[in-house]
# Entry
Amino acid sequence: MDALSMGLVAAMGALATVAGASEDIDSDIGSQSNPNSQVQLAAQVGNPHRIYNKAIAGEPPSNALWCTTAAIVAYMLIEAFQMPALFSIALGASVAALFDGVMSMSAYFGRNASQKRFNQWVYLDIVRYTTPSIMAHVWITSFCIVTITYIQVYVLTPHHPFPIPVIALIWGLTVGAIGSSVGDIHYGGEREFQWRLFGQGLSTMLSGQIVRKAEAGLRNSIDNAWFCAKFGGPATGMGFGLTVFLDNWRTTVFDPVSQALLAIGTGVFFVIVMNLYNFYLERSARRKYGPYPGYKGDIAA
Amino acid sequence: MNFDATTIIYILEIVVGGLLVGIGVHFVPVGGAPAAMAQATGIGTGTVQLAAGSGLTGLLSAGLMMSVTDNLWPIIATGAVGAMIMIDATMLTGSWIYAYAVGAPFASAKVNYDPITGFSQPPYVAPGTVGQGIPTICYVSGTIGAAMGGVGGALIYYPLVMINNNPSLSAVFAIGIFLVNAVLASWNIQGTIEGFHDPKFKKWPAAFKACLVSTFILALVAVIITGGA
# Structure
């Protein structure tokens, strides 16, 4: 372990936290992934809306695509043209953002045009000012993830044996899986259904009845980003940051060759602590919200 | 390349790895889109996506370990730990949102009492939902599933590198074999499952057979292609 490696691992953790947060906010602005089912359904049950609707793919494959695209461009510029790393990564992220912009717009036009019979309109103003926000967040995500892979492959010792695009593919899949598992709950469970009863799960009766009015005027996707950036985004960032930081920290502090057992043992220790923390959360949520008031079964709470 | 006893052992290792991935997916508590709306127990995403996210994080750790040692045990152990860290961090931060933002008590709709904590479940399940949040039993089940996925990924990767000494090529083949098994298992559980306490878990022998056949074919192909490269 040396000071430089520890600093690099800390930087990777910080970059991962930013990447996770921006990935989640990107999916919230575009209503990608799981909560998109409700946005899609809303118009069909008589609630046309002004929320952006892009479901290019599940979050993991789409983010894997953006990150790999950025990584391939950056890798090519670094290896074939000896360009500076920062410039190459920035250019790669820009190409990924452009790809994302094209696909987001075609997804929005296609989905909303197909719902014409439900009185759902295609809003050109929404396309104009929401698409650049989506692209900007994809740029941040791709930039951070390709920078992490660059550090892993070229700077951090031991150097990772996989090439940059393969690591970017895996981190892209992972950040998408975390964004889809963590941040989506905040957008889907909390923001889309703000007038449901607090302290219980969401009844399927409410499917498609999403909130369409904002704090001022009609709600659009930028309002959703404003809300989700307060908790869902940072929590996703924390999830991805913890994954990248803890996983690399244990093999940096302990030498993977001579202290392999310690590196593995530390990982197991983290896993046990997280299991116990979830048990604490479960207990506190049960105590705070209590059993369902109308429960008529014979099993005691 | 020579098709000797070592090659057969490598093929068997890939098959065992594929089977571990296929069975491991059955442990991961995924509720799909309804879980993201607090309408179902588990993690609010797709089975394959989460299994791939965790298993491939394990593959990254295993790849790093394999660049410094040829010993199989630390490689598969570090693969398992990498995958467990990823899935635990994901479930933990997801639980923050269930507990502090959405505001839902964690409850499973598949059992009356949590087999680990003994907590009663039905009183906490709101009508119109099939549970919500990630109770302890699901969390532990997910951790076990991720460990199996991580070990599986490492077991697929290890023999390929031993054959061709090319980490990039081996990683791409390992990702492919991993995803095939994850998708097969996902079809078997029809997209959602709560963990090893879910009645759907009893269907694992079907996935076992399917994964056995598919991984065997893939292992042959992978060994021949990467070995000849």
Summary: Chain B touches chain A through 86 residues (CB under 8 Å).
